[in-house]
Amino acid sequence: MKNNKKNLFAVILCFALLLCSCNNQINHENIRGTISEMSGSAKIYYTNNFLGIGCEFDDNHKFFSDEDIAKMNNTKVAPKIVYEMENDATICDMMVQNKTNGGVALVTIQKIPPSKESLSIQEYCDQELEQSKPQFTAMGYTVKSSKQTTVSCMGEERPALSLSIVAEGNVTIETLLIFIKCHDHYMASITVMSMNGTSNNDLLKAFHYLQ
């Protein structure tokens, strides 16, 4: 199980690299979400007012702190965990894991470069698909399949990338990457990952729009 988690977190880092496609730094203080617990409840809540989304999970799930994520990816903790990669920046705003099956969900936010601001989410998804297989192959993973699909998320059908990646130890990691455009200048994504055929539906269904 420990090696499986290591594989999963390594793939998460690859996704951070894949999404770092611009040279615009983010004013991250204004767009971060919060994680909170409600008194008398076993549930933990993630809320991001900037994106207008949130999710809630029971105590069978673990939320990771900025420091936890930085240690997994062997990166330096900057304020509000901005990943500095070749002068690019993508914020990993939230990461949660199912303690039973190891599935992971994360929310990332990136600033869209001027050359991509006019793209629709569908067009943006097309470009990311073109980059995904070479990116993972270059980092030593076998991409069994990579395709564009549609996924029901937060009550809407959304363009998404579906990837099946074989990592060390013949561990298969199934990944869905769902894009959410916000405020013209930012693109957020919800990524859900599962290992060796386990379902990630519980993670995806937990997300909702804020009232």
Explain this structure to me?
The chain has 211 residues and is of the alpha+beta class. It has one domain (2-209): Protein Transport Mog1p, Chain A (3-Layer(aba) Sandwich), CATH 3.40.1000.10. It has four helices and twelve strands; from the N terminus they run αββββαβββαββββαβ. The strands form two sheets. Strands 4, 5, 6, 7, 8, 9, 10 and 11 form an eight-stranded antiparallel sheet that branches. Strands 1-2-3-12 form a four-stranded antiparallel sheet. It is globular and about 45 Å long. The model is unreliable at 20-24 and 75-88 (pLDDT under 50).
Protein traits:
globular, alpha+beta, single chain, 8-stranded antiparallel beta sheet, 4 helices, Protein Transport Mog1p, Chain A, 4-stranded antiparallel beta sheet, about 210 residues, 12 strands, about 40% strand
